[in-house]
Amino acid sequence: MKKDSFKRIMYEYTEWPGDSIPFDDLHFISHRYRRVLELCNSKDVLEIGAGSSIAKKEIINLSKSYTGIDISEKNISRISRECNDLDLSLFVDDAENMQFKDNSFDLIIALAMVYYLDENKFLSEVKRVLRPGGILFFCTSNADVPGFNAAPGSKKYLNIQQWDELLRKHDFNPKFEGVFPHKSIIKLGLRAKIVAYCKLFFVGILGLNSFWNRLREYSKGSLTKIPKHLEDFPRSQEEIIQIKECKDSIHRVIYCISLNNS
Hints:
By secondary structure, this protein is α/β, with parallel strands linked by helices. It has a single domain (3-260), classed as Rossmann fold (3-Layer(aba) Sandwich), CATH 3.40.50.150. It has helices at residues 3-13, 23-37, 56-62, 73-82, 119-129, 160-169, 185-205, 209-220, and strands at residues 20-22, 44-48, 65-70, 89-92, 105-111, 130-141, 172-181, 223-225, 241-243, 251-260. The strands form two sheets. It has an eight-stranded mixed β-sheet with strand order 4-3-2-5-6-10-7-9, sandwiched between helices. Strands 1-8 form a two-stranded antiparallel ribbon.
């Protein structure tokens, strides 16, 4: 995929406050950001794929400093406008070739975006800019769940064992957590796959957002608007399960917390 097309898709796929999404999806967003808040206290934080303005205020209030990067100029410009009252640094930058000096951050977060990257280049750069003893936190969809459908534009989904091996190769000590058991996702598999490819065509290529929203509603039910602040999101009660054997085909979302050993 050409870089300009990729940037356009990244902007179209970013979920912004005020956008309409299925109510259940609010739980995914809320849960991962609340998990991040448990890690960022008094740290110099870098968010890769900073995306939208969701939860920026809460992260910044807890962090020592906040820096966000995104490949999309439109995303960075919009975050700047919507968060102009917050103390943050924003850059258009490539996660595989970042502009920062070595040992710049205590915590690096990458939410629902690692499958768009070259994993080795990404981890090499994270290793370089993360301080010794720092933490990499990312979340990803679990490709081992029955009925899984890859996001259009994604490169590759590693399973937990593959991530574990790769992270240890880069001298990280990873731990994995599972959330959101798949439940009825098997029944929705074919329909969700159709909607995913329709979104790539109608939104990513043609820019027909209203048509996509109708398909989204058909696939997952009624839509609701995304809040800007976490306090306005539903508080998900989903339990976090520690994954001990690098194997899971139950949970739809995987969290990874990796300690930088050196």
